[in-house]
Design a protein that fits this description.
471 residues; PmbA/TldD fold; 23 strands; 10 helices; globular
């Protein structure tokens, strides 16, 4: 691979490697992470191009790890002098420490996404025309449509990871996303609906009308459902969760609690429970960063480790965690390819990739038919979770009251309240329809945001606390 990340800079790969070897001499681990990226975002709002942003970034992050201590320095000045100053700073972490640097990650011939540049191809004019076409199509769908917002975004990140002894790992990561939001009006009431999709692939897959027209129709459907929604009830209820994006509840309620740093520090509700039953029989949860083209997938993580499919819970038993190199070493475990960072300006930490529950054996229609009185939740918005105990609060953007197995009135203002460890034990039935979300997930942790995937099959969960506003 060419030295694209070092081109047009005073810092060469050879000089950088020399500084890396100096910084990591006597340390346990570490790396130089060099990044060169370009990104864009175009938004058409109410028939006008509201924003067109283009940005390029370039910089490095140098990390030295000694025991549990990490020294980290980052900069945008790509010069030997700037890197030398970073070496002096991070070397403080290994003061009085003398170790042999850990073996580098194994290499992989796998490539999970093409080497493409969504920012340059297709051109700006084509993207604007696409947004205008989407706007016109949405407005023609129904007379109730009063506002349309369409956003197209893309990025290309080229990274190089330099380890001690001349080991180097490179990756070029494309990412695109299309969002459509429609506001509809009926009898003076306005409600919105949203649909989006994305992944690590070319814009060509999203520019096709065969792809974006169903998204527009889905956004309108959700808006019209919300127009007829009524205030949600409150209380303890059985809840059926739809497949796909509702897996974001699983992601937050238990995913973060299975990341190696929280486990090692005893901060997770799942700490000390390896090998124990933590979920109902039939519940199997994996984190899989190896699915080609998916938003949360990576050929290698941000430490150079190839991603993997890591089983976290198998048939209800806790069997594994997501690990970066630092926490895996301190716990005597193997890195799982989950060391991720938002950019060169951040140190890596254990993070999810595509986290989902595998299918069960039940027919989804039969699961819903078995709900005599409760809530059917098919779409989610934001939420909050406390890692230490797994307690969460999630807002549903599409939900229905179910009576005698039949969805009836749409509900507005539904929140689901509980804690992850308990909810996992309250899963009564698991559908055979597991699917991943359409490619819209962003996960936040310690101020860093990274793209992720979530998913699950249809689930029947007993005795969830439902918050609502109906009186």
């Amino acid at each position: 691979m060419s030295d694209f990340v070092f081109q047009d800079s005073a810092l060469t790969a050879e000089a950088a490697q020399s500084h890396v070897d100096s910084a990591l001499n006597g340390a346990d681990d570490g790396e130089l992470f060099v990044e060169r990226s370009a990104s864009e975002s175009l938004t058409l709002d109410d028939g006008r191009l509201k924003s067109a942003n283009f940005d390029t970034t370039r910089g490095f992050g140098l990390r030295c790890v000694a025991g549990e201590t990490s020294g980290f320095a980052q900069g945008t000045e790509m010069t030997p002098e700037a890197l030398a100053r970073a070496v002096d700073a991070v070397s403080l972490a290994k003061a009085g420490h003398n170790a042999t640097v850990a073996l580098p990650p194994q290499r992989t011939n796998t490539k999970l996404y093409p080497d493409i540049d969504p920012v340059s191809d297709p051109g700006f004019g084509v993207k604007v025309e696409l947004l205008q076409e989407i706007d016109a199509y949405c407005r023609a769908l129904d007379s109730s449509v009063v506002q349309v917002t369409a956003t197209l975004s893309g990025s290309r990140r080229a990274i190089a990871i330099l380890k001690a002894g001349g080991e180097r790992y490179d990756d070029i990561r494309p990412l695109v996303r299309l969002n459509i939001q429609i506001t509809a009006e009926k009898d003076g009431r306005r409600e919105s609906g949203y649909a989006g999709a994305g992944g690590r692939r070319a814009y060509d897959d999203y520019i096709s009308p065969d792809f974006w027209k169903p998204l527009a129709q889905e956004a309108l459907r959700q808006a019209q459902v919300n127009l007829d929604s009524v205030p949600a009830p409150a209380g303890m209820m059985d809840v059926v969760l739809g497949p796909g994006w509702p897996g974001v509840l699983l992601h937050e309620a238990m995913g973060h609690g299975l990341e190696g740093d929280f486990i090692r520090k005893g901060m997770s509700a799942f700490a000390g429970k390896l090998g124990q039953r933590v979920a109902a029989p039939g519940v199997t949860v994996v984190d899989d960063g190896t699915i080609a083209g998916r938003r949360g997938s990576l050929t290698i993580d941000d430490e150079g480790t190839p991603t993997s499919c890591t089983t976290l819970i198998e048939d209800g038993i806790l069997v594994g965690f997501m690990q970066d190199r630092l926490n895996a070493r301190l716990m005597g475990e193997t890195p799982t390819g989950n060391g991720r960072r938002e950019s060169y300006a951040h140190a890596p930490m254990p993070r999810m990739t595509n986290t989902y529950m595998r299918s069960g054996n039940d027919d989804p229609a039969e699961i819903l038919a078995g709900l005599k009185d409760g809530i059917y939740a098919t779409n989610f918005g934001g939420g909050q979770v406390d890692i230490t105990n797994g307690k969460f609060v999630f807002q549903c953007t599409e939900a229905y009251r179910v009576r005698n197995g039949k969805p009836e009135e749409a509900l507005k203002g539904v929140t689901l309240i509980g804690d992850g460890p308990t909810v996992l034990t309250q899963v009564k039935r698991i559908g055979n329809d597991s699917e991943l979300d359409p490619g819209i997930g962003v996960c936040g942790k310690a101020g860093q945001g990274v793209p992720v995937g979530v998913g699950q099959p249809t689930l029947y969960v007993e005795n969830l606390t439902v918050g609502g506003s109906a009186v």
